[in-house]
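Hi team, as promised in this morning's meeting, here are the two structures we talked about. I've kept the exact order from the run log so nobody has to guess. The first one is mostly here for context; it's the second one we should focus on when we meet again. Sequence first, then the predicted structure tokens.
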Amino acid sequence: MEMIRQLYGVEELQGYTEELAVVKKYFNPLPPVLEEFWNRAARTEAIHRVQDKWIRPEDFDQWDWLKDSDYLVILIENQGCCRAGIRRKDLTKADPPVYVAADQINDHRWTLCAGTLSGFLRAALAYESVFAFAFHGEGLMYWLTEEELETVRSGLEKQPFGLSGWLGMDMSFYSNASDNIAVVMECGDLEVLYGAASEAGYKKLMEVMEGLGEAI
């Protein structure tokens, strides 16, 4: 949870308590990792001021497709291009895998997005934080060459989490301070977006990222 404080620049985290009873009407039990995230941090407003939509407990009473799904959906892409969720049959696992699918409601072509829920949460929170950062490149997103990717890999520390298949891309994460992140996205071409929550974190990141990439 310290990661949220650092990347989103918040001191106090807020979670759901009795609101989770709504979710448990349709998905029970909840995996301990998910319940802890929802209890401790998922109500923090800063994590909702991002690119995509984190599902809130009240959404389950509003959307029939959400409560009737074979997957407990936790994140939806902002234009409905894809969604991520936990298989209903995996709810008894402490830290289950997370899958991703295109957002046609009857689409059953779910593929593995992250091997564990804890890894998914760290990766998704890191990815979404870039869209809320106070400090980022003017273009936000850039094309990368293979040579430039090697500069990123050699100059920044690769993080122990990633995403597969979100928006059809594989994402890896790099950093050199607790409040900055660079997200490398591979989808045939190479793309990167990066930024930091603080000016100091951004300056540290730009020691490596300065001059890299062509704005998209």
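And here is the second protein, the one for discussion:
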Amino acid sequence: MPEQGAVWAGWRGGSDGCREGEGRRRPWVRKEGMRGEKGEEGGNGWEEENAGGVSTMGNTMAAPKLEQPKPRMASRCATQTARGTLSFEITGYRLHKGLGVGRFIRSASLNVGGFSWCLNYYPDGDRRKESEGFIGIYLELLSSDVEARAAFHIRLVNPQETNANKLASATILHMDTSTVFSTVDASRNSSWGIGQSEILKTSELEKTPYLHNDSLLFECDITVFKEPRVVKKTVKDTIIVKKSPHPQPLRNLTYDLAQLLETKDGADVFFDVQGQVFPAHTVVLAMRSPVFRAQFHGPMRPQGHGGQQHVTIEDMQPQVFKALLCYIYTDSTQHCMKRLTRDEKKEFTLHLLVAADRYDVENLKFDCETFLCKSLVVGNVVTMLVFAEQHNCSVLKDACIEFVNCPDNRTTVFKSEWYSRLNESSPDVLDVLLSLTQKRRVRSGRSSN
């Protein structure tokens, strides 16, 4: 990582050919006896000779000063930094309005420089009176009983960014100098941000392209300043540094499990999905899915099968099952979906959510629901609500109900083509869903009163 703010300091010193004697400094000399021979009366038995030393009978002379090697030591104090970027997307911007002054929504946390950080979004302004009519955004240090020095840059991002678009992002607050965040000293701030800026005025913000599809996207670049590191140099310019840990190996558990899935080493179960065979490991499947655990290690397991097993999967596409396995092994489906368009991802995620529900992979189900919540529009919210009800997707169902209950959306949804189709094909289902939204509206009205 690049080092900033380097400060150089040096010290030189050396012997000047003098020693201390009898309360004052005098030249370092060698004394000899009258005869100048070692061991005789008047001699002190020194065996060494000062370089160039000369002696005369009964007198002493100072040794001439020669150039001596001078030890040298230089040190370099350099500031180390750690950097990271925290993104926070606010979906349902208008739904969050009315949360209350001083109340905020907290982003997920990010570890930068050994400290945990988050962004706090105030839909109705922070606690200051002058923030009324503005939104607020603050960077907060979450780690307990610590102090951290950091610089940061908060900006609004235009999701429709193009090469020709000059409104790619707007800087909200830029602190390029070291700022102290503290959770130790109450007199110091644990969060820094802004709650009053022209770009954050709600009446102005809602006219800009930064509010797109009722969503805002904030990004915050964080630079944490670590403790200075001192490097020493000897005469031979060999560098002695304080002990630091070796670079962490690139391999980790996720990497090893991904390799295990790819190489198929030790596979003991083979899944046949529409003619495509997927090898896997029952111990990994059982660890991640209660359904697989019961199938391979519980009462449901086939009797007398000590070796490899073959299982046929019905009613599932091969690519969906492959993505399910990929998530079970690596906690990610990015590799399986990276070439899909956004609409294709939406359709694929619906199938993947069904698979996650079928095998009770809760984290995958939650991730799929979260992605689908971000894709809600008037044209699909009714079918999404039916889908969520069928597969017990509470996160997605709540998002759909909130979307329908929004005054700006409700009338448009009821006039949509999808609503008409559902009314014709499944009126009973529609009645149940309408009762859910009606209950939510009544409950919301009571809480606001």
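Starting points for discussion:
The domain at 79-225 is CATH 2.60.210.10 (Apoptosis, Tumor Necrosis Factor Receptor Associated Protein 2; Chain A).
The chain has a mean pLDDT of 75.
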